[in-house]
Amino acid sequence: MIRSNENLLTMVNMLLEVYRYEAGRKTLTFSPVNLASLTEEVMKALSPLAIDKKLALNLEKANSDQDLMIKGDRLELNRVMTNLIGNAIKFTDQGSVNIDLSKVVNHESENGSTIPTVRIEVRDTGYGIPLEEQATLFESFVQGKHKRGGSGLGLQLSQRIVHAHNGTIQIKSEVGKGSSFIVHLPIR
Ligand SMILES: Nc1ncnc2c1ncn2[C@@H]1O[C@H](COP(=O)(O)OP(=O)(O)OP(=O)(O)O)[C@@H](O)[C@H]1O
Ligand SMILES: [Mg+2]
Description:
This protein is of the alpha+beta class. It is 38% helix and 29% strand. It has 5 helices and 7 strands. The strands form 2 sheets. The protein has a 5-stranded mixed beta sheet. It has a two-stranded antiparallel ribbon with strand order 1-3. A hairpin with a 5-residue loop joins strand 4 and strand 5. The mean pLDDT is 93. Magnesium ion (MG) binds at residues 83, 86-87, 150, 154.
């Protein structure tokens, strides 16, 4: 009973957050965020789920923690990492979930200019996502044909948070092989 109340509360909060972003009423608090320690924190919180499913959960840092610092809203970025790593664990039954962090000095942004970013890749060896589903994945309440728990709000909110940081989020996935979510957050 406690667990289902908690699940309900999480879902309602997520829905409210989506509306807050939609209404333009969300204010972020920017401060220096160490993405390495943030990721380690989220991994630690989610590791019981991975252990339960006998999945390896690995972190690879290509740079020093100092180079993996950005200006951002730590609480909001925690939501993004929790959803991406949580999804990877939820939709993988065998193998591993790998998280790669690296600094990209010249990331080509959408308007053609190059900016320094921290790149976060969350990669799993799970079910994968069919191409036709990838296009709508970031919309509210969109879920695959699976029967796993969730409300289909996590990616919608994650995308809004990433965009509010002037970042990008992108999927690469192949059915039966796994999925990879790649986030770029500008360093400023
Ligand atoms: N790593 C992944 N591997 C396979 N499918 C995924 C992965 N991540 C997301 N998906 C698909 O995208 C859908 C939307 O993900 P999203 O995080 O928005 O919702 P959810 O995890 O189902 O629910 P919530 O995050 O609200 O608890 C999922 O239901 C699933 O079908
Ligand atoms: Mg989710």
